[in-house]
């Protein structure tokens, strides 16, 4: 049975659909606490939206979708305004949209028809959401004898009316491929950064390594990967042999980018890393730092690794105090360089400095002394890794996080728990995680530095 979620997943990762339909579910890894929390947030948003509407819901035992479909059609025939969790079914297809909303017009039911609406907790619409809506619309058109060619996405902050007609060709091509995947076609294996949160990662990553799949190349996008496959470049060895200029033209890239991919392929095959040491600024104080924020983006912790010691600025709800204390600490040092991993810290500081009207000279001085190690690593290190995230890089350099479930998402959950309970053990877990992040950043800094840091 092909479900609406298959269409959604196809536009994120077709191989996930293959795994679902062709592999033993026991191979899946349990969802992380943060992933569960995101699902909970989605359910809470859905509950809030529905609570403000008058809805009718078909009554049936979960799993008996044939009965659910018949009960849904009954509600459509009597013309209720809003159907919640209605069942749409045809042949091998099953869809349960969050809402079916009555509209003026004509269908086999009378002088009205229904459109499908889905409730999502994202701030803007995404392609996979629209394609899922298109799937509902297809089933709805077959049920009511009228194709509305539109649907609705009820998002976190707004509601979008979607014209579905422009997506017809892409949707049909995808559904044809999903039908084949359901029958056993193995398609769409691709390794990238999102795999670390996928419950199928212990299947896909070892398989890709066994095949020496070309998608093991860091930075190779899914569209570029598919173009390579179409031109018989599917393995790392194929990539090494390919002509850089021709391949660059093929995927609308540059020969330099392709040459870098080839370097990655060589490193993955040989296991021999390439690191060009980098000349960092001469300074008395090399400080690695990392920030932690809540689910709604509020700063609650800045941690530093300075002179081989961990220092932190924490506040349950006083964001400004953290910023002020951090700035005061830096002003007391005068000569320093700040190292972070990824763009988030710099972007967050820009927002905070604006928010609390930090003096232009002070903010300019701090900004000028910030170095993003992620950019340095990308330009100067070729490593046999599928992700260049901090944890992957630092772990490759033999650094270990103390918590097995360490991650930015889980730290948000820990903070929420600590903020409610004030449990010292939870606070210790938060601080240990942040300390490991800044120590891991320092490990990367040392590996990349020409001199002493």
Quick overview of this protein structure:
The chain has 18 helices and 15 strands.
Helicity, as a percent range: 40-55%
- From the alpha-carbon coordinates, what is the Rg to the nearest angstrom? 26 Å
Question: Major sheet: order of its strands?
Answer: 2-5-6-7-8
Residue windows where pLDDT falls under 50 for at least 5 positions:
none
Number of strands: 15
End-to-end separation: 58 Å
Largest sheet: 5 strands, mixed
Mean pLDDT: 93
Task: Give me the number of helical elements.
Answer: 18
Structural class: alpha/beta
Which of globular, elongated, flat, extended, rod-shaped describes the shape?
A: globular
Strand percent estimate: 15-25%
Topology (elements, then pairings):
Blueprint: E1 2-3, H1 4-10, H2 14-22, H3 33-51, H4 65-78, E2 82-84, E3 88-90, E4 93-95, E5 99-107, E6 110-119, H5 127-144, E7 150-154, E8 159-163, H6 168-182, H7 201-211, H8 222-230, H9 236-241, H10 244-250, H11 255-270, E9 274-275, E10 286-293, E11 299-306, E12 309-314, H12 319-333, E13 337-340, H13 344-355, H14 360-368, E14 370-372, H15 373-380, E15 381-382, H16 390-396, H17 408-421, H18 424-448
Parallel strand pairs: 1-4, 6-7, 10-13, 13-14
Antiparallel strand pairs: 2-5, 3-4, 5-6, 7-8, 9-15, 10-11, 11-12
